[in-house]
Design brief:
By secondary structure, this protein is α+β, with helices and mostly antiparallel strands. 35% of the residues lie in helices and 23% in strands. The protein is flat, with a radius of gyration of 40 Å. The N and C termini lie far apart (120 Å).
């Protein structure tokens, strides 16, 4: 018995040994095959195949482009995600039967929400995408049968379904559509995210803020977006799209770094005031274009800047960066430069006077004319101050001829001494000579100097000075002789923390002598009090500045005018400097009446934003009514209102039904009888909606109401014969 058990044990152990040996051999084979796959070229090929099926490498993670803000944190430009919508017809879980069942409903839903394609076109795109997969699958099978190991060249596995990019809310909506409401591995829905630029304040300062290319990866195209593109753009990251447990997931290899935010100097309220004021005058004068810039005197910060061009439709919109790039002869605003140079060089004193006569002076066969020359008025002699006040070209010409005729270089050196020929770079990028003054210099081969150049330069011709330079010059006067460069980009932020802060570049710490500056300030105030800019004077604060009216050079001659005004306010304690220029206005050109009135509007509205007026300074608005408005309409109802409020009114006939209301003074109303003829359209202007509707419908007309309040217009004129059943439209405000 013991021998038999011993024999059985040996047999069992032998069997175990065979199993162990077999398992060891099998394990060795597995390891050998694995090693073969890993370390041989064949293994490399299969690894690539596996990665192609399960890993999509090196996909770019776009960084968020930095925001652009006003000085007080209002968004001028920001990035928001948009999505390109694709379908992956090689998704593992996509089911042909389910797709064919819902493709019709899906196409209708897509067409309803995104009408860039019809339902039939959406259906065709989807079916074509599936058909392409079937063709490629058939080719793969055929290659396997024939032993052809060459991989089938596939088209992109992603087919774009919706033409336009869509928002996140629209993406959420799409995910509720038939078939697309499944998991992405079953629906094949792929949303490719990209950043787009949004402007919460619309077109406010749009030319200054600038634009980006439609493909945001290309960066900024103009304005601040272009100038600081490298700061705003950030650094892209890298991610792999990998299938894990049947689901596609994004694995971040290198995270993206968002761009810096930029805080500008712009004030949204002042910017709005600047644009509205300029646009209003451009529309009134039907001008070709205009620019307005307002900056803080001490800091150099530009608070508002508008560049408006007339478009093909006749409306005005941000176009060229006129403030920086408009290269034209500045005209009489340049006379202040001449006065500063001449006073500093002591070639003229405040007591010197110059004969202007009837406003005509001939020099080297060319006439210098003052604006009043056609009147024949003899003004005799004028001092420098009087010449600035009335903007006399003759006074300025005679001053420079007296002081610089033998040495014109000294005059231009004086302009250089101020800093007006210094090349500067601006926050709004430009090209070529744009943004740099072109002021002639004697014997300069690049700029022709004629026998009449010197006197014509003295009053703003034969030189090209963009508006931003004139603004900078006048701001230097307001800033006690310290000329600083106007700027817009103020801070760079990273995650809300200020990384870099900009201040104004000092172009010239002292433009002129203190005595000269005092005289110049007095002259500029006198221009507004006694001179060509009387209309610019304000009831609230003193203003100093200079008008300009220059003919525009065109084709070897002149065509149209450029009118301007540049100055600062309050003149006794300057806070802001402002330049306004209007190109080719219709009517009689006037630096004071056109550009100056825009300046005044901007100045007063800006001042009110920052100052609290005392009761003594508050001017009573003549349009302010002391009595409540009572609408025209049914007399009995109006009578009840008047009795309740305690206002007087004249006796009215008892049979009066409809009245027109007015008031003669602060306590008494006038009610005049309105007769209604059943055959003609009544005058319902001034009535409330209820009375107008009742009266018109009673006469057989149908009424279309537009707006609310009281009637301000009606589509049929009063007295017109009534055609019963006709619809009359009345507008209420």
């Amino acid at each position: 018995m013991a021998k038999k058990e011993k024999k059985n044990n040996k047999l069992i152990m032998a069997r175990y040994g065979v199993v162990v040996v077999f398992m060891l051999l099998f394990s060795v084979m597995i390891l050998f095959s694995a090693a073969k796959i890993i370390f041989t070229p064949e293994g490399k090929k299969w690894k690539e195949v596996g990665e192609q099926k399960n890993v999509i490498k090196d996909r770019v993670i776009l960084p968020k482009r930095g925001n652009i803000y006003t000085y007080d944190g209002k968004l001028l430009a920001t990035s928001e995600p948009l999505y390109g919508i694709y379908m992956d017809f090689w998704a593992d879980g996509i089911n042909q039967d389910t797709l064919m069942k819902y493709v019709g409903e899906l196409s209708k839903s897509l067409s309803k929400s995104f009408p860039s394609r019809t339902a039939s076109q959406y259906k065709n795109v989807i079916l074509k995408g599936w058909s392409q997969r079937e063709k490629e699958e058939a080719q793969i099978k055929e290659n396997e049968i024939q032993g052809n190991k060459e991989p089938v060249k596939k088209r992109s596995r992603y087919v774009r379904i919706i033409k336009e990019d869509i928002s996140y809310l629209e993406l959420k909506k799409i995910r509720t559509f038939p078939f697309l409401n499944q998991r992405s591995n079953r629906s094949g829905l792929i949303a490719e995210e990209r950043n787009a630029r949004n402007r919460p304040f619309g077109n406010l300062a749009s030319r200054t803020v600038g634009t980006v290319y439609k493909d945001l990866e290309k960066g900024g195209a103009s304005g601040i977006e272009l100038k600081f593109d490298s700061i705003l753009v950030g650094e892209p990251g890298v991610k792999n799209r990998q299938k894990i447990e049947g689901k596609w997931m994004d694995i971040v290899v290198k995270p993206s770094v968002d761009g810096y935010d930029i805080v500008t100097t712009l004030d949204a309220d002042i910017q709005d005031i600047t644009e509205r004021s300029l646009r209003s005058m451009l529309e009134e004068t039907e001008a070709e274009s205009g620019t307005a810039i307002i900056m803080e005197v001490e800091t150099g910060e530009i608070k508002g800047i508008a560049n408006l061009d007339r478009m093909n439709n006749g409306r005005y919109a941000e176009g060229n960066p006129n403030a920086f790039s408009y290269m034209n002869e500045p005209g009489s605003t340049f006379k202040t430069v001449t006065a500063m140079v001449a006073l500093d060089d002591e070639v003229v004193t405040p007591a010197d006077s110059f004969h202007v006569g009837t406003g005509m002076f001939q020099y080297n066969g060319r006439w210098v004319l003052d604006h009043y020359w056609r009147r024949g008025q003899d003004r005799g002699y004028l001092t420098l101050k009087e010449g600035i006040e009335v903007s006399s070209n003759i006074v300025m010409s005679k001053i420079v001829l007296k002081g610089y005729n033998d040495n014109p270089k000294k005059y231009v050196d004086g302009i250089d001494r101020i800093g007006l020929r210094k090349p500067l770079k601006w926050d709004v990028p430009l090209s070529g000579i744009e943004g740099t003054s072109v002021i002639r210099y004697p014997n300069d081969k690049n700029n022709y100097w004629s026998k009449t150049t010197l006197p014509w330069m003295s009053f703003g011709y034969e030189s090209k000075v963009p508006p931003i330079y004139m603004l900078m010059f006048y701001n230097g006067i307001a800033n006690n002789g310290k000329m600083i460069k106007p700027f817009i980009a103020k801070q760079f932020l990273k995650n809300g923390t200020v990384e870099k802060e900009m201040t104004a570049e000092v172009v010239n710490p002292k433009m002129c002598k203190d005595t000269t500056l005092t005289l110049i300030k007095d002259m500029l105030e006198s221009v507004v009090i006694n001179g060509t800019a009387k209309v610019v004077a304000s009831d609230y604060f003193p203003i100093a500045g200079k008008t300009g009216t220059a003919m525009i050079a065109s084709g070897g001659g002149y065509s149209g005018y450029f009118v301007s005004f540049c100055g600062y306010f309050p003149a006794d304690k300057p806070k802001y400097t402002c330049f306004v220029g209007i190109r080719k206005p219709k009517g009689i050109p006037s630096g004071g009446g056109m550009a100056g009135m825009v300046f005044k509007n901007i100045a007063e509205r800006t001042y009110i934003l920052n100052e609290q007026l005392s009761p003594e300074k508050c001017v009573l608005d003549s349009a302010l009514l002391k009595m409540p408005l009572i609408k025209n309409g049914v007399w009995k109802q109006n009578q009840t209102v008047l009795n309740t409020l305690g206002f007087e009114y004249p006796n009215i006939d008892d049979d009066t039904q409809w009245v027109k209301m007015n008031h003669s003074n602060s306590t008494k109303y006038i009610a005049s009888n309105v007769k209604v003829d059943k055959n003609v359209v009544p005058n319902v202007i001034g009535m409330g909606a209820r009375d107008a509707l009742y009266l018109l419908e009673k006469l057989g007309l149908r009424v279309n109401l537009i707006g609310s309040g009281k009637v301000v217009s009606q589509s049929f004129n009063p007295g017109q014969k009534i055609v019963k059943g006709t619809t009359i439209s009345i507008t209420l405000q």
